[in-house]
Every structure is written in structure tokens, then in C-alpha cells.
Amino acid sequence: MIFTLIKIELFKTFAKWRTYIGFIAIGVLFPVIMYFLKTEGGGIVDSSMRSIKNEFLISGNLFNAWVVTEFIMNSLWIHVPFLIVLVAGDMLSGEATAGTFRFSLIRPITRTEFLISKFIVNLFYASSLLIFMWALCVGLGLYLFGSGDLVSLADGMITIIPESEAAMRIALAFGLAIISMWVVASLAFLFSSFIENAIGPIIGTMAIMVFSLIISNLPVDAVEPYKPYLFTTYQSVWLEAFKYEIDWVKISDSIIALGINIFAFFLISYFIFIRKDIRS
Predict the structure, then answer these.
(1) Within 13 Å, how many C-alpha atoms sit on residue 8's CB side?
(2) Which residues contact 20 (CB under 8 A, 6 or more apart)?
């Protein structure tokens, strides 16, 4: 039954025009960014490497698909969650607004099955958006800029990753980014479980995310004890993929922390929804 419900929810989700806003935004914006980067001709890399060019002989295509992909991920990472919550925030609140909750639940299914199917589709949408972003960045990037070594500026340090590892590092970064965005989708899903319009979950999710992001990056000793409890502290785990030596312990710890947040948000959503008085 749960697989049938997932299929139904997938159809309902991808039948809405709102679902495609993120894909359209990425599909239009990323080629435009790449066009201007192509026109600019690698000045970003040149300016970043200026400090070491006098001491080292650097050759090869340093302005390539892998460098451009990392640059785009760094530049637009705060904007991607907004595209995700546009759909995630409508998962349950959209049903309440349309008055279709009662109609959906008169079928021989439980509220638990209904909620789980919604949540899985919610995570699937977030994953599909990131996979589309990865495919577009890499595919179009290779066509426009070619391949080469990955010059990474993660944590303000210049790291040169060999071309043979670049594709794997980018794939790892996007895989970690998907888990990171699942937290955003889960938080929006939580708001959607008790707010009966789509605007509330969007505003609430982005407000909490921005607030947590500011606190987790605030260089003040007074907030240090609270940082481990903020999900934004672990969301930048995808940057670990661009370190010269991958810290798998830090990655696994971050995945566990993000997983706990995802489960907690779903659990709260479950207790809210299971007790919800559905009148329409």
C-alpha cells in the first residue's frame, strides 16, 4: 500500500506547476552564470591563484567544469533551500488549503501511511532538484570549459585536486548536499503539518534557517555551546569533499547529526498530524 501511495503522491506533486519552479530557475540561471563565466575567461581562478603563481609553475586547464561547479555551489547555496521549501512547504498545507485531506483519508489507508508517503516524496523532490543541478553543472560545464584539475578554495585555502579525482569529489559534494537539503525539506514539512497555507511554512523555514546560519557562523565565544545543536552547523559538510584529505570521521558525524534532525522533524510532524482535527 505504501508504494502505491508514493506513486500517487509523486503524480500529485509533479502535476503542480509549483514543483517545476526550482527546475526552471536552475535551468535558466545556471547557463546564464556559465555564459558570463565563459565570457569572463577565468579571472576568478587567476585572482585566487595570484599569490602562489610567483612561487609555483602551474599549467593545464584550471578554469574547467569542476572549478565552475564548485564556484556555483558556493555562490548559490543559500538560494537552493528557498527553491526546495516552495514545494516542501506545500506538501501538507496544500492539502489543507485545497480541502482534500478528508477525501484523501477516506481511502483504506492510515494517517501514518499517508504521512510517510508524503515525507518520502518530499525528500525525493529535494534529491531530484540537487541531481538536476549536478547534471546541469557537470554536463554543461564539461561542454563549455572542459576538464582539468579542481582548484578548490574551501575554507579559504587553495587545494588542487587531481583531475582523476575531480568527478568523484563533485559527486561526493552533491551527495552530502542532498542530505543537507533533506533537513531543510524536513523542517518545511514540519511547518506544513500545522500551518494551513503554503506561505507560512516557507517564511518559517527560511527565517529559522537564516537565524541558525547566522548563529552557527558567529565568531563569539558566548554562542559556542549552542552551535552543536544547530543543524546549520553541519550543513556545510559538503565542503569536506573539496579538502585535500577527506575527513571521513567529520563527514560521518555530520551525517549522523543531520539524520537526527531529519528524524526529529518528521517525528514532530507525525505527532502533530496524527492528532490533527481534519475538518475538510
Answers:
(1) 14
(2) none
Give the pTM.
0.90
Output phi, psi for 278, to 5 deg: -90, 115
Closest CA to 169 of 242, 65, 237, 251: 242
**C-alpha to C-alpha distance for 57 and 263, rounded to whole angstroms:** 49
Handedness of CA 239, 245, 246, 249 (dihedral sign): negative
How many folded domains does the chain comprise?
1
Residue 186: CB atoms within 10 A of its CB come to: 25
CA 19 to CA 87: how far, in whole Å?
A: 6
- pLDDT range class, residue 240, cuts 50, 70, 90: very high
Sole residue written with cell 584539475:
149
Residue 148, pLDDT above cutoff 70: yes
CB 132 within 8 A of CB 83: no
Establish if 101 belongs to a structural domain: yes
* CA atoms lying within 13 Å on the CB side of residue 82: 9
Q: What is the pLDDT of residues 73-96, one digit of tens each?
A: 887 777 899 999 999 988 887 766
Other C-beta atoms lying within 10 Å of the C-beta of residue 162? 10
Q: Which domain holds residue 190?
A: 2-274
Closest CA to 185 of 128, 113, 255, 112: 128
Cell of 66: 569542476
Q: Quick check: is 227 in a domain?
A: yes
Identify whether 243 is part of a domain: yes
Does 279 map to a domain? no
